[in-house]
Amino acid sequence: MIRTPLRPLARILEARARGENPDAIERENLRLRHEQMRDQARLRAEGRLLVLGVAFFCAFVTVGARMGLLAAAEPHEPSAAASSAPIVAQRADIVDRQGRILATNMATHSLYAQPQQMIDKERAARELARIFPDLDEEELLKDFTGTRKFLWIRKKISPEQKQLVHDIGDPGLLFGPREMRLYPNGKLAAHILGGASFGREGVHSAEVIGVAGVEKAFDGYLRDPANGGQPLRLSLDLTLQAAVERVLYGGMKLMNAKGAAAVLMKAETGEIVAMASLPDFDPNDRPAPRPGTQAEDSPLFNRAVQGVYELGSTFKIFTAAQAMQLGLVGPDTLVDANAPMRWGKHRINEFRNKNYGPKLSVTDVIVKSSNVGTANMALEIGKERQQAFFRSLGLFDPTPVELVEAPTGKPLLPAHWGDIHTITASYGHGISASPLHLATAYASVLNGGKRVQPTLLAGGRPETGERVVSEEISAAARTMLRAVVTHGTATFGEVEGYRVGGKTGTADKPNPRGGYYEDKVITTFASVFPTDDPQYILVVTLDEPEDRSGAEPRRTAGWTAVPVAAEIIRRAAPLLGLRPEIAPTPDFALTLASH
Q: Is the model's pLDDT at 80 over the cut of 80?
């Protein structure tokens, strides 16, 4: 800044020349200098205030914006920096083919204790034992007064239980957020869903992992954040599953059976729209396996997939279809059915030692369920071709269905396949498979002859599998099965309007000590409907059934499995959108009318 002198010489000289006081000039210059300094100080102060105001404004805007973002964001638990991977608790839903919830998540809490922070340990132990009756008050008090610094009390509690614990008011009882798996339909489709449990756990989060069924088979997909929470959509139909399970349960009780299984499958695609196994369980409270018991006695055992049984005469249609496909016979070809049949030291009998021979057409072999007629066709086929055909139907390997239990359902085959095994396998003895194996094989033979793979996933386009039989042979097989229902061993399987076809199978149950039981059987009815337009396959299997409505107990499939399957079809067909075919009334029919 350029400073102006207070007493400039030129002005002093001029003032003296005019007779003025030179001191007035100094006072004036001093006043102007003070005013200039004051104005500069004011401008400097105003600038500083402006900068400070802008700084405060920016700070308040930043804080407000951050608070707004936090208020609008979804709550999440902060994770501390660590070398281990964070616990991912989120798990995708499982829905049926219509998008209805089968498995979902529910927010809940865990309960834990930090004894060093507890005030009244005796009262806390007493109140906790009252809230949770399965807890022991003395054990709790022992843990609270010991050296432990952390104690899990409950991995998950209900909101009501949380409130009761909160009312205790002890600061050493703490809650941690949890996400638990919920199955809102209870026992429905329990063996398919399987169940979930906690994996890695922390105080503020827990990892939910699948332990069985599709929950475990698709565990990676359900836990993968990259899927964006997209649900896993199954081929099951919730309404159909409920109807099948209800009828199957009633049939099992009515027939005094030990267990039961049912598979309802789309014939064209292999999609499973309903599959049940009884007895069952609630996946919300999955029971632990009981040591010392056989697998099939556990409610966790999936009889439809893991249960391998001799399925009896249901296999006869495979023998007939293969013989027709090879050109050895036709539907009306007469075959030897003279019983009993001897093969070496073995004797092949018919049911109750009947004799349907000496000759039967192939159709009548199926309708009357002749063991001897089927055996003679199998011998014509030969063991190599028979084995190849069974293998093409998937009867030699576990089913590829999307369940972790599927590999355990491996068919049981003869160790050395000789001619006698060719004979017995032709009518379903000496070879064991699961009901799902049977449903898949029936679908492959009866849908027009294309191999299908069973699946629990919806929306998949049908894959064109290898051809196992021609369309003509497939149609002929369906015609035979329709005759079994109209005037054969499955007349109780007739459901008006739906043209049901099927084959019965009754097999003596193997005794673990060797041989077979004389009074225990496995009964099966494998069916297709409608036979003229095959859309669905239904297989029903009962373990140790016994119809006691007559003078003597009746154990054959025609009396046990067939009526149960017919009722399932009667309930399920309308839900599947199938319209019943109403037989036309004759033009000259008489109608009885009351006055």
A: no
